[in-house]
Amino acid sequence: MHIDNNSNKKVFPFQANELETMKLKMLNWLQPFSIFSYLCTNSNYTTSGSYELLIGVAAEDDPCFGMDTIKLSNNQDWYFGHIAYTYKSYVEEHLVNTLPVFNGFPTSLFYKPAIVIYIARNSLNLVIEADQDPLLIYNQIMSAPSVVAPIQEALVFTSSESQTAYVDKIHRIQDHIKMGDCYELNYCVVSSAKMMNTSPLQVFASLMKHSPSPFAAYYKYKHQQVLCASPERFLAKNGNTVLSQPIKGTIKRGLTLEQDECQKEILLNSSKELAEHIMIVDLVRNDLARIAELGTVEVAELFKVYTFPQVHHLISTIQCQLKEGVEFKDIVKALFPMGSMTGAPKIMVMQLIEQLELYQRGLFSGAIGYVSPNGDFDFNVVIRSFFIDEKAQSIAIASGGAITIDSDPMQEWEELKLKVKALESLFYKAKGC
User: Fold this and answer.
1) What is the pLDDT of residues 176-202, one digit of tens each?
2) Cβ–Cβ under 8 Å, residues 66 and 5
3) Residue 105: CB partners within 8 Å, gap ≥ 6?
4) Domains of the chain: which residue ranges?
5) Catalytic annotation present for 232
6) What is the pLDDT of residue 429?
7) Whole-angstrom Cα distance, residue 176 to residue 355?
8) CA proximity to 240, closest of 279, 290, 291
């Protein structure tokens, strides 16, 4: 079952002050479904995009598809889904995936939804498209609870690496840099815990309060769920324009307006952050050139500071005009995985990552998103996320950072702990912290 040209579509107006309540109702309504995508910008319109909220729900008997199925040139269907980091072995056949798994999402999966729900940006209309009567779905949503209970469970996360082991890995990476194997490598560590008395919905609702982000996603595939507060766009297509917006460079917000502006200046004048950033910009330019009309690759924004609730990020926008005949799979193969989560040169660092990291990344540092009926698409970078396996009652976090020759190993360790703590802190209140 999927939405076709004969589907029903209805529009339901609402008031601005009802938006957050409606989101909670929709999240509660989604819980019984086994496959769904909930994509939300949290009203953060610093980055371009079409939707404030976009939901795709699969029917129980719906088949799933690979990327070959998606044809941008004559597409008439919605597709929702993901591309896991392990797809790298399809991009470069000699790259292997030998590490143990910490999240069990398939390498690549797309589905045609039975129900699509969306709110366009700056709109006060809820739109429902479905083969069944949209009014029935709307009534179900409006009858759902509008609250989510706070987290009450205190969890202790265990890191996959000790401080000593991590620092040793950073030295090994820097040895590879000195030998000329690479210039920059994004190294990641996993932390995990058992979660017995907290639902994924509770975690996501708390995460959105703590870190409302423009590329947030609540993505469920059977017993595997990812709760994502990503600030980063991997890849988007609007008409004939394809763009990527890598993040490299982060600094905390200031406590006052004056301090905030000072923090921005520190970020913009950090030689280390700028050096890391420009390497990724060049990598993306080269990747886009594979699928671009000759001479159309351009850096539309370079070193632009984007402000989020807790941090400032350094983001560049690299775009091109799509070459005729290029399909979705071709675009993904040209740019995946995203350079901001690998390093440079990309193939060599992916080989080193396989040697150095302790777990297969799976959907972490992959992408979640959608393809619309007109052939446009938008995909995030899966970072700042919880990975939940309901069968194993486990919850995991992966985090890391870009390592260069100038990186201080102990400083990298402290930054890693801060990133992990930002997510773990959702469970601190249960401890009375």
Assistant:
1) 999 999 999 999 999 999 999 999 999
2) no
3) 82, 84, 221, 224, 226, 362, 363, 366
4) 8-145+153-230+356-431
5) yes
6) 60
7) 12
8) 291
CA distances 335 to 143, 219, 374, 379, Å, are 43, 22, 21, 12
Q: Is 230 exposed, middle or buried (0-12, 13-18, 19+ CB in 10 A)?
A: buried
CATH superfamily of 8-145+153-230+356-431: Anthranilate synthase (3.60.120.10)
How do residues 144-186 score in pLDDT, each as one tens digit?
999 999 999 999 999 999 999 999 999 999 999 999 999 999 9
Q: How many CA atoms does the CB half-sphere of 309 hold within 13 Å?
A: 16
- Which of 112, 220, 237, 248 is the catalytic position? 248
Residue 412 falls in the annotated catalytic set: no
How many angstroms separate the CA atoms of 300 and 302, rounded? 7
Measured between alpha carbons, how far is 360 from 166 in angstroms, rounded to an integer? 17
- Confidence at 428, pLDDT banded by 50, 70, 90: confident
* Tokens standing for residue 52: 């404030």
Q: Which of 232, 273, 357, 412 is catalytic?
A: 232
Percent over 70 (pLDDT), the chain = 97
DSSP three-state, residue 337: coil
